[in-house]
Every structure is written in structure tokens, then in C-alpha cells.
Specification:
The protein is of the alpha/beta class. It is built from twelve helices and nine strands. The strands form two sheets. A seven-stranded parallel beta sheet has the order 3-2-1-4-5-6-8, sandwiched between helices. Strands 7-9 form a two-stranded parallel sheet. Helix 8 packs across helix 12 and helix 9 packs antiparallel against helix 10. The longest helix is centred in the N-terminal third of the chain and has 15 residues. It starts with a strand and ends in a 14-residue tail after the last helix.
Length: 301
């Protein structure tokens, strides 16, 4: 791998940062594509990444980013409405550059008849990258563990309640760092994986009520799950700064998918490809106490 240059798009995002960090830890050269220079991109530069500013929707920008690149990670932001166009531009630039392998961040509910337009775009993008013959491998994570504090930290702290519209069905939340391990594992040995679609999950299927129980145990306070109606969830999301209409539509649609059991899956992909067992939810909460507004917890001592 010493002669490889890997392009990481979405490099300042939840999976992008740990992917860059883990690749650099292995002594692999990384070109990190960011939309802007900020503290996150400065961090990546400080640890040894070549940081460039570029636009996934600009062909020349992507041609420049692909120069001398041999493998790449494609990750488009979830609030974007132009995923298929971005995937096409990425595929054209990667094919022109002779890229040998690409890990594509898709999602578990990606399918041709998904209720979410974004999930359908992920399904289409998978096919575009396959047809480009650039060694595409698709990962389909379930909900990130980080969603619990992104959507719940404020109400857990103020009310002791976790408002999510996921019903009684289960999913196995997976930490972004564990997803990154899978991405890095594939990029290290892509020949074993080209053409595959991997469902990436945490170690245990849980209802949201059961997740609230884990939060209660770790944080040392009672956390109750309130199962919001999906339309009420949409109204809550509309009040979140920076939340686009397309992302609200997607989050409502995947909530419906969750209620219908689409997300109920447990796999060993993190351990098998990423090299270590996926992090249990209790350990994730301990590692992220500050995000839940807690300084310390006896369970985490």
C-alpha cells in the first residue's frame, strides 16, 4: 500500500475524519477533499493529509482531485439533492484517472422502490459506479450511533426523554469509527471485495426503548423513549437549523422503513473487514459523555 494515494471525499464528515486518521496511521498517503478550509480540515492537514478544497458537483474539480489517485472513498452529504449527478461526475473522473477501487457510502434502505428519494438515489448511484468499472464496493450502514446524541441529547438533558418515531422495530446502531474501519479495510485489500454490497451494523439489535434503557444505565438518569408520530417528527425537524426539506423528507421516509422492519439486521462486517468487533452501545455512550451533556458517569469509570 505504500505506493497508493487514496482520495477521501467528505473528508471532514463523521466517517471521513476517522477514515483519514486510520489510513494515515497505517502509513498510507491520503488526499482529503473538503468543501471549505476550517478547523476540521486544519486537523487533517496537521496529521499529515494533503488537504484540497473541491466540489463533487464540478467535473474539473474532481479531475484535479483524482490526479495520481489509485483508490478512493466516495461520500456525498445526506442533505444533498444531487447525489446521482455527483456520483456520475465522480465516476467519470475516477475512470479517466485509472482509479482501481472505490468504496461508496450508500445506506441500508437503498433500493429501487424506497419511499425516500435519497435512498432511491443511493441505489441508482451504486449502479452508476458499478457500470463505470472502477472497482466499486458499496457499504450500506444502518443508523449511526451518533444519531442518538444528535437527535436526543437536548431533550435527554432537559426532559429525560428521547423522541424518535421508530416504533417497536429494532436496529443495531453502529459508530462512525467502526464504519471507517470497514472502509479502510476494503481500501487496503479491495480485490477481496469489488462488486460487493455490505450491510454494516453494530453488534446488537435494539428497539429505541431498549436503547433508552442503555442510556439510563450509563448516564445514571432515567431516559424514556417517546414514540413520535412521523408527521410530528417532521415538524420537529423543520425547527432544526440547517435542516433542508429534502433531508426532512428522507428522515421521515426512513422512519417509516424502520417501523416496517427494514433496518432490523445484525452483521459481523465490522469485525470481519474492519479487524475488531463493533462497539457496543454502552461503550459508545461512555466514549461520548460530553455529547450527551454529562461530565462523568459511574458506569464509565
Amino acid at each position: 500500500m505504500s505506493n497508493q494515494l487514496i482520495l477521501v471525499t467528505g473528508a471532514t464528515g463523521k466517517t471521513g475524519i476517522p477514515v483519514v486518521e486510520q489510513l494515515l496511521e497505517q502509513g498510507i498517503a491520503v488526499r482529503a477533499l473538503a468543501r471549505i478550509h476550517d478547523a476540521r480540515s486544519e486537523h487533517l492537514a496537521s496529521i499529515g493529509a494533503e488537504v484540497i478544497v473541491g466540489d463533487l458537483l464540478d467535473l474539473q474539480s474532481m479531475r484535479d482531485a483524482m490526479q495520481s489517485v489509485t483508490r478512493a472513498y466516495f461520500c456525498y452529504p445526506p442533505q444533498g439533492e444531487l447525489l446521482v449527478e455527483a456520483a456520475t461526475i465522480f465516476a467519470v473522473a475516477a475512470r479517466e484517472a485509472g482509479v482501481q477501487a472505490v468504496v461508496n457510502m450508500s445506506q441500508l434502505p437503498a433500493r429501487d422502490d424506497a419511499p425516500s428519494p435519497l435512498s432511491r438515489q443511493h441505489w441508482l448511484s451504486e449502479h452508476i459506479l458499478d457500470w463505470a468499472d472502477i472497482g466499486a464496493v458499496h457499504i450500506r450502514p444502518t443508523f449511526f450511533s451518533e444519531n442518538l446524541y444528535l437527535f436526543g441529547a437536548q431533550t435527554i438533558a432537559s426532559e429525560g426523554k428521547l423522541y424518535l418515531p421508530y416504533g417497536l422495530e429494532r436496529h443495531a446502531p453502529v459508530a462512525a469509527a467502526d464504519i471507517a474501519r470497514v472502509i479502510v479495510g476494503i481500501l487496503a485489500e479491495p480485490g477481496l471485495h469489488i462488486g460487493e454490497r455490505y450491510t454494516v451494523t453494530g453488534p446488537r439489535n435494539l428497539t429505541i426503548a431498549e436503547m433508552a434503557g442503555v442510556l439510563s444505565d450509563v448516564l445514571g438518569c432515567t431516559v424514556e423513549h417517546v414514540d413520535l408520530p412521523i408527521e410530528a417528527w417532521g415538524q420537529v425537524l423543520a425547527g432544526v437549523p440547517g435542516m433542508s426539506e429534502s433531508l426532512i423528507s428522507h428522515l421521515k421516509a426512513v422512519a417509516q422503513d424502520h417501523q416496517e422492519g427494514v433496518f432490523s439486521a445484525v452483521t459481523d462486517v465490522v469485525e470481519r473487514i474492519g479487524g475488531q468487533a463493533a462497539q457496543p452501545l454502552a461503550d459508545f455512550v461512555c466514549d461520548n459523555l460530553a455529547h450527551f451533556g454529562v461530565k462523568e458517569a459511574p458506569r464509565c469509570a
